[in-house]
Design goal:
151 residues; 7 strands; binds coenzyme A; alpha+beta; Aminopeptidase; 30% helix
Length: 151
């Protein structure tokens, strides 16, 4: 199964997969979910990266969004369909991002309570570099700022 999963960089014309990203986002990150239009416009930007993990049957299993300007990238979101978690899909998405951003330093914010995501990022060499107090709403929570690469 895992060998057959493909990671695709979506273009704005990949309407069905972008729509599926918005639907998966609603399931995974309810209060902060992006709309289809947000995914589409990210895929359209020169700086935008929307990666989709797709099964051989063309089903969306996970996605990652990021934006990269010069030598700095922001990982804005990553999610994997609940039924497919713990199979290395988020890892595949991150490895693909690293290959696209090269030497760029990558930043992200994560909810302090999101231990699964923090464990994922640490496995892939992100390190905590700061806290943004009350960064999130619904519920209000601090963000841990993490960095990959750079000094
Ligand atoms: C976080 C998330 C993207 C991980 O996706 P995934 O495909 O299951 O992750 P992987 O299988 O690639 O896991 C890689 C590593 O992450 C860590 N990890 C992932 N899920 C974990 C869990 N439930 N418990 C502990 N560690 C976990 C482990 O170190 C794991 O490596 P291992 O399996 O060799 O131990 C997924 O749980 C998810 O979609 N969560 C909801 C959305 C979310 O919170 N996104 C982050 C927003 S900042």
């Amino acid at each position: 199964m895992m060998q057959k999963i493909k990671i695709l960089k979506l273009s704005p014309e990949n309407t069905e997969l972008l729509q599926a990203c918005a639907e998966l986002d609603k399931i995974c990150l309810a209060s902060e979910a992006w709309s289809f239009e947000s995914f589409r416009s990210e895929a359209e930007k020169n700086s935008g990266i929307v990666l989709a993990a797709v099964s051989p049957e063309a089903e969306l299993l996970g996605f990652l969004t990021a934006s990269c300007i010069l030598d700095t990238a922001d990982l804005t979101n990553i999610a994997v369909s609940p039924a497919y978690r713990r199979n290395g899909i988020a890892g595949m998405l991150l490895e693909t991002l690293f290959s696209l951003t090269g030497e760029a330093c990558i930043f992200l914010e994560v909810r302090e309570s999101n231990q699964n995501a923090i464990a994922l990022y640490q496995k892939y060499q992100f390190r905590p570099v700061g806290v943004r107090k009350n960064f999130y709403q619904n519920p209000i929570e601090n963000a841990i700022l993490m960095q990959y690469g750079g000094n």
